[in-house]
Amino acid sequence: MQSLRQWASGRQAALACNRARLPVHRSPIVRASSVKGEVTAAPADAVALNELMEVAIMAAEKGAEVVREALDRPRSISFKGATDLVTETDKASEEAVLAVLRKHYPRHALLGEEGGVSGDTDSSYLWCVDPLDGTTNFAHNYPAFAVSVGVVRGVTPVAGCVVEFTGGPHAWVTRTFAAHTGRPTTCNGKPVRVSQVSDVRRSLLVTGFGYEHDEAWSANMELFKEFTDVCQGVRRLGAAAVDLCHLSMGVVDGYWEYRLKPWDMAAGIVIAQEAGATITTMDGRPFSVFERSMLASNTLLHQQILDKTDPKTRGLLAANVDLSPWFVPPGYDTTRR
């Protein structure tokens, strides 16, 4: 069986070959215009989407190597808050991921969960990195964590990769989800698609809770109960990227959560969307990676889920609970398309 390092090396060699044939910043990407029949060229600084995805895969796999090597070792754990923990593996994985991104795109902006903002925030591209999504799960050997690498243009994720760890102690395996805009999502190279469940009473849903027990947390607890009463079950894994990947392959049918950050969502959003998911805010507005609430579904269930999340979210807003867009790196232009 080909090792992860050999596989990643092969991808890097292939990417180098592609670079020799195609200058990075003169990619022949085209976009459909709003006028039927017209096609407009991509912006001059556009990078080929397939290339962005390949680099995301290489970076995520490099981070996954670090995580894999740490699985059977004692955990070195510290705390960012009362219950929000971080391990040395988070930091080492982020360093490995960012090294790949800086090598290929030294002028792109970078946003890591552990290291914050770096690179050129005047860039059209922002890489959002969660080096170990589901750190608490990792610390307890609970098989629901991942390395997530997504790239955003403006406010829209355009390519990403999530390497999910499953199986558990003595049986760890990974599966690699990848997608870019206009390319169907794959898991370990095979196409995946959202479910066709059209009745919320037949659905399995998933949600998440932040570390702050605030008004949004309380509202979500109420939603958890309401959905448990009407669907076949609600799960809570504690790893947003994993939740979105499970939606993309039809394992769950809908997902909602407050208080997410760009690194939690960037890769998972494009992976879910290109598998057929619909994504909005929890009150039904158009979604951006900087929003503070997200509802993702298999599309068929979206309105049925929104019928419950919308009133709760509007109630929070009416009570002046802050759900405004999250921190945007200084100098980063969210209007780019």
UniProtKB/TrEMBL annotation:
Keywords: Hydrolase, Magnesium, Metal-binding. PROSITE patterns: IMP_1, IMP_2. It holds the Pfam family Inositol_P. Signal peptide: none annotated. Its cofactor is Mg(2+). Its EC number is 3.1.3.25. It is an enzyme of class 3 (hydrolase). Pathway: Polyol metabolism; myo-inositol biosynthesis; myo-inositol from D-glucose 6-phosphate: step 2/2. CDD domains: IMPase (cd01639). GO terms for molecular function: inositol monophosphate 1-phosphatase activity; metal ion binding. It catalyses: a myo-inositol phosphate + H2O = myo-inositol + phosphate. Mg(2+) binds at residues 113, 130, 132-133, 264. InterPro entries: IMPase (IPR033942), Inositol_monoP_metal-BS (IPR020583), Inositol_monophosphatase-like (IPR000760), Inositol_monophosphatase_CS (IPR020550). It comes from the Eukaryota. GO terms for biological process: inositol biosynthetic process; phosphatidylinositol phosphate biosynthetic process; signal transduction. The keyword Glycoprotein does not apply. The keyword Iron-sulfur does not apply. Belongs to the inositol monophosphatase superfamily. This is Inositol-1-monophosphatase. It comes from Chlamydomonas schloesseri.
